[in-house]
Amino acid sequence: MTGHVIELAGVTKSYAGTTALADVDLVVERGELLAIVGPSGSGKSTLLNIVGTLARPTSGTVRIDGHLVDELSDRGLSALRATTIGFVFQSFHLSPGVRALDAVADGLLYSGRPLRERRRTAEDTLRRVGLGHRMYHEPHQLSGGEKQRVAIARAVLGDPPLLLADEPTGALDSRASLVVMELLRELNRSGTTVVIITHDRDIAAGLPREVRIKDGRIEHDTLTARQVGV
Ligand code: ADP
Fold it and tell me: I need a labelling partner for 138 at 20 to 30 A (CA). Which of 10, 145, 154, 187 fits?
């Protein structure tokens, strides 16, 4: 297996009349922290859905953590997602009335582990994201930044090697954004590969690698630009 967590080669995604992604090549190594940045409609979500194995490309090949996605059945894809990829979204996706502890513990519902153990793991993970004092709060009792940290705790519960965050600070004020970005950096320092989709150029520019996408094509990649010295 290679050290590549993500390997896209010649990936195109077409919808009737629209090419959302055109011939995209992208390699992400284990342990990277990068932003995919671009204006609305440029293909960021399509790219995230393909990397997250939620959508299949029209053509081209996709390898995630060494697995050739084209060869996997839908069941195989679900298994790959469950073990390899954590997802974080702009809108948190937390159910009303569900306490932080349960929202996170429910992520282990199908793990076959007993409730007490699921709760203990959820507690540890909430402490890891700095929410040890908010275990019993429901979403309406949490700030936006805290809600996003609960969502991140749920996403990293099984310690997936890859975390995909779609506009994770899009619904947050600037102070909460900083806290969430710092948490994502911290997870990256502990070994998780983190891909952040954003239209915020300041956030993107503050990350070690920035992949700019426009009209479904990679317009600029700060990593490959450094490698070829442009
Ligand atoms: P972004 O996330 O950068 O805003 P998207 O990946 O959502 O961009 O969209 C890229 C292009 O593909 C847009 O022109 C969009 O209208 C089109 N598109 C995305 N999803 C679909 C779909 N399910 N059906 C048809 N067109 C789509």
Answer: 187
| 51, 59 Cβ separation under 8 angstroms | no
> Number of structural domains, the chain?
1
pLDDT in tens, 183-228: 999 999 999 999 999 988 899 999 999 999 999 999 999 998 777 7
Q: Which domain holds residue 34?
A: 4-227
With contact defined as beta carbons under 8 Å apart, do 65 and 80 qualify?
Answer: yes
Q: Residues near ligand 1 with C-beta < 6 Å? A: 15, 18, 20, 38, 40-46
Nearest protein CA to atom 26 of ligand 1, as residue? 15
Q: Whose CA is nearest to atom 27 of ligand 1?
A: 15
Mutational test site, ligand 1, from 18, 58, 90, 212, max ligand atoms within 8 Å of CB: 18
Domain with residue 58: its CATH number is: 3.40.50.300
Q: How far is CA 61 from CA 44, 53, 75, 171, in A?
A: 18, 12, 19, 33
